[in-house]
Specification:
Keywords: Transit peptide. This protein has 251 residues and is α+β, with helices and mostly antiparallel strands. The protein has one domain: Transcriptional Coactivator Pc4, Chain A (Transcriptional Co-activator pc4, Chain A). Helix content is 21%, strand content 29%.
Length: 251
């Protein structure tokens, strides 16, 4: 089990949250004032929604991030909440004939840090397939939990390399290999499939975003920054674990 802890000082407020049924961690709020390009001050809390979007012929694909959650103990020690680790979120949204999008018909698929690593290792040489199962809500179908889970359509993500450096991202709900199924729960009951062809330049941008996000997904970046800040404050105060002992003792 991954676990990392850092004792932290009091620092500027940082909050990660989101509006929406799937995620509570898809925007960041920083406790710093921000002056926009128009010279106006937008207050002490600025929200940001990092995303990269590829517009396909019949569907758009947005790459988003769900930030990890943390806990602070009574001893002012910061640790990662292992039940809410970060995710890279792939969101598929259908495009209508008039060029608008059907936002309420989206299908989402969250990738863990380990799945992101697998994807980066396998592409563009090999196809990547990942799946999820969600049981019927409230014991629908009158089956046991295990039977309900096994009978539920699987949400399947396939990423397939193509010609000319293209990559096809396809999401669907399948039962026994048959696609176009209506899910029991989640995904707004959208059956699929939804598919986007990503060109080489777009694919490189997406993979670089994923690669650089891995330390953030596992909480490494935030806790390393907090630990470093604490060490600097201890150094200013003349305290800390290296204050009275040779550094060589820790090699």
């Amino acid at each position: 089990m991954f676990m990392c802890k850092a004792q932290i000082p009091r620092i500027r407020q940082f909050v990660s949250t989101c509006t929406g049924p799937q995620s509570s961690r898809c925007f960041s709020s920083y406790g710093n004032s921000y002056a926009g390009g128009d010279g106006k001050n937008y207050g002490e809390s600025v929200r940001s929604y990092p995303q990269y979007t590829v517009f396909g012929e019949n569907c758009l694909l947005s790459l988003k991030i769900l930030l990890p959650s943390f806990r602070i103990s009574r001893n002012n020690v910061l640790s990662l909440d292992n039940s809410k680790k970060g995710r890279i979120l792939l969101e598929f949204v259908p495009r209508l004939a008039d060029g608008t999008t059907a936002r309420d018909q989206h299908i989402r698929f969250g990738l863990s840090a380990e799945e992101v690593g697998l994807l980066l290792d396998q592409l563009p040489s090999h196809e990547v397939e990942l799946s999820r199962r969600s049981p019927p809500p409230n014991g629908e179908l009158g089956l046991s939990a295990s039977a309900s889970l096994s009978s539920a359509p699987a949400k399947v993500l396939r990423i397939t390399p193509g010609e000319g450096g293209t990559t096809t991202y396809c999401i669907d709900h399948e039962t026994d290999g048959v696609g176009g199924q209506i899910p029991f729960s989640g995904s707004n009951n959208v059956a699929g499939p939804l598919e986007v062809t990503v060109h080489l330049g777009e694919h490189i941008v997406m993979t670089e975003i994923m690669r650089s996000s891995i330390p953030t997904l596992v909480g490494w970046t935030a806790m390393l920054d907090a630990a470093e800040l604490k060490n600097m404050e201890d150094a200013k105060a003349g305290v800390g674990k290296y204050a009275d002992k040779p550094f060589d003792n820790y090699n």
